């Protein structure tokens, strides 16, 4: 590990909800590359700016300018730079700036009734200022498997729901392991998010900003960028297949002419 990281980078600890946190990580990577010459660096950034500021805004533009400058430094230091993301981002608020939310647990507690099922929001984490623990995807776990068709029909008919899958279909279409799925999986449309029970989501941390978040199929497209051209084998493979963000490691290590 690296001791005294702040001293090593020469910067104070950034706030979690700031552009500076991601820039700090990139600056740490630059420092490591300059002084220790590692064979591989994996630098994971936050998505606070993308949650809080729309593309083209001054805040977003300034952030991307600063990121791009650091990517250039990494390349100048001899690194092959590979960039991708785990998801896109979209505006999920109405014309008045209020989040478009389906409180699915509350709906299902009314019909078919409390105790029938439990709605789980995978986006839930400690940093609710990003998204209020709201996204475009949830899983439903049933108390009784016999209720699956009934709950499926109810959820399918809710405005703002784009698709409902059984566990088997979700695993197949989303390329996920079946044993990690609930009984049903639900995705919202482009402008809607799905929550559990309204009382369990604290939206005050958004501080009046429009809700920008992810999880639906509309945020599935992400960048896949390498700083060196692909060799023939991987160039042909990229043309013939839909790239997945997880493949960025293989392409960076084996797929370029460098």
Describe this structure in words.
It comes from marine metagenome. With 258 residues, this protein is α+β, with helices and mostly antiparallel strands. The chain has two domains: 5-88 and 220-254, 3-Layer(aba) Sandwich (Alkaline Phosphatase, subunit A), CATH 3.40.720.10; 101-218, Gyrase A, domain 2 (2-Layer Sandwich), CATH 3.30.1360. Helix content is 34%, strand content 14%. It has nine helices and ten strands. The protein has helices at 5-9, 19-35, 48-52, 58-76, 104-113, 148-156, 167-173, 232-240, 248-254, and strands at residues 82-84, 90-91, 101-103, 117-120, 137-142, 161-166, 184-188, 193-195, 212-213, 224-226. It has a four-stranded antiparallel β-sheet. The protein has a two-stranded antiparallel ribbon with strand order 1-10. It has a two-stranded antiparallel ribbon with strand order 2-9. The chain is globular and about 60 Å long.
Outline:
InterPro entries: Alkaline_phosphatase_core_sf (IPR017850), Phosphodiest/P_Trfase (IPR002591), Phosphonoacetate_hydro_insert (IPR023116). This is Phosphonoacetate hydrolase. This protein has 258 residues and is α+β, with helices and mostly antiparallel strands.
What is this structure's SSE topology?
Layout: H1 5-9, H2 19-35, H3 48-52, H4 58-76, E1 82-84, E2 90-91, E3 101-103, H5 104-113, E4 117-120, E5 137-142, H6 148-156, E6 161-166, H7 167-173, E7 184-188, E8 193-195, E9 212-213, E10 224-226, H8 232-240, H9 248-254
Parallel strand pairs: 3-8
Antiparallel strand pairs: 1-10, 2-9, 4-5, 5-7, 6-7
């Amino acid at each position: 590990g690296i001791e005294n990281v702040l001293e090593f980078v020469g910067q104070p600890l950034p706030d979690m909800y700031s552009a500076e946190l991601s820039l700090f990580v990139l600056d740490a990577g630059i420092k490591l590359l300059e002084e220790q010459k590692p064979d591989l660096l994996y630098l994971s950034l936050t998505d606070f700016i993308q949650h809080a500021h729309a593309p083209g805004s001054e805040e977003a533009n300034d952030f991307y300018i600063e990121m791009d400058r650091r990517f250039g430094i990494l390349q100048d230091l001899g690194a092959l730079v590979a960039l991708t993301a785990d998801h896109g981002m979209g505006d999920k608020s109405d014309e008045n700036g209020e989040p478009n939310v389906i409180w699915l647990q509350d709906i299902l507690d009314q019909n078919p009734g409390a105790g029938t099922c439990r709605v789980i929001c995978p986006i839930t984490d400690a940093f609710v200022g990003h998204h209020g623990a709201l996204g475009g995807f949830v899983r439903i776990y049933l108390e009784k498997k016999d209720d699956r068709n009934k709950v499926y029909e109810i959820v399918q008919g809710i405005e703002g729901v784009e698709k409902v899958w059984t566990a088997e279909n979700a695993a197949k279409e989303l390329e996920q392991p079946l044993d990690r799925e609930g009984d049903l999986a639900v995705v919202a449309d482009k402008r809607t998010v799905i929550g559990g029970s309204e009382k369990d989501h604290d939206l005050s941390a958004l501080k009046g900003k429009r809700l920008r978040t992810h999880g639906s199929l509309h945020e599935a497209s992400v960048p896949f960028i390498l700083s060196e051209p692909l060799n023939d084998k991987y160039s042909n493979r990229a043309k013939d297949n839909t790239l997945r963000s997880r493949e960025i490691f293989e392409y960076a290590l084996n797929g370029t002419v460098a």
